[in-house]
């Protein structure tokens, strides 16, 4: 069983992303559009579960499905859509998860944009990031062995912040 632990920001997280990014880019090759570090570990000073979340954007999601064995050889568990239509989800590390990939085809714009907007909003709004970190820390203490309860506890905050982030992003375009 995965124990939920939220820890202070670790400046090694971006380096861990960069190392994994090189492996994934090599595996995806010509299908790659972009690969981003997302999630709490991508936001400086934010408390987080020490799991590197990545947003993989590909030209053809079906071609990505054909590469499942490549991900398995990199120790990723191939999880399919895993609750989000059109997404491909991969996780590494079992109960001691270290990395997660959320993959989308380039034209699944809403899902791609909401991940990036949420990250960028937290990077630009320290007070919101701090509030989010404190919420996650509290939930981890309350539900150390229930990822469902932990996720449910964050849901309203994430949805509210995601909405604010998407609006903020539109308001700050040139």
Automatic annotation (TrEMBL):
Pfam families, A to Z: GrpB
Alphabetical list of InterPro entries matching this protein: GrpB/CoaE (IPR007344), NT_sf (IPR043519)
Superkingdom of the source species: Bacteria
Gene3D superfamilies, A to Z: Beta Polymerase, domain 2
Identification of the protein by name: GrpB family protein
Organism: Vagococcus allomyrinae
Lineage: Bacteria, Bacillati, Bacillota, Bacilli, Lactobacillales
């Amino acid at each position: 069983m995965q124990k939920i632990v939220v820890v202070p920001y670790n400046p090694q997280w971006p380096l861990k992303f960069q190392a994994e990014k090189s492996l994934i880019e090599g595996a995806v090759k010509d299908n790659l559009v972009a690969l981003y570090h997302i999630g709490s570990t991508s936001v400086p000073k934010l408390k987080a579960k020490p799991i590197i979340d990545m947003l993989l954007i590909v030209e053809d999601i079906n071609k990505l499905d054909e590469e499942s064995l490549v991900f398995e050889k990199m120790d990723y568990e191939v999880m399919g859509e895993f609750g989000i239509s059109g997404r491909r989800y991969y996780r590494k590390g079992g109960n001691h998860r270290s990395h997660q990939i959320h993959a989308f085809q380039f034209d699944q714009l809403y899902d791609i944009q909401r991940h990036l907007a949420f990250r960028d909003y937290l990077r630009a709004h320290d007070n919101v990031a701090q509030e989010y970190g404190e919420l996650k820390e509290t939930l981890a203490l309350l539900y150390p062995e229930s990822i469902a309860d932990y996720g449910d506890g964050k849901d309203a905050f994430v949805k509210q912040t995601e909405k604010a982030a998407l609006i903020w992003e539109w308001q700050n375009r040139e």
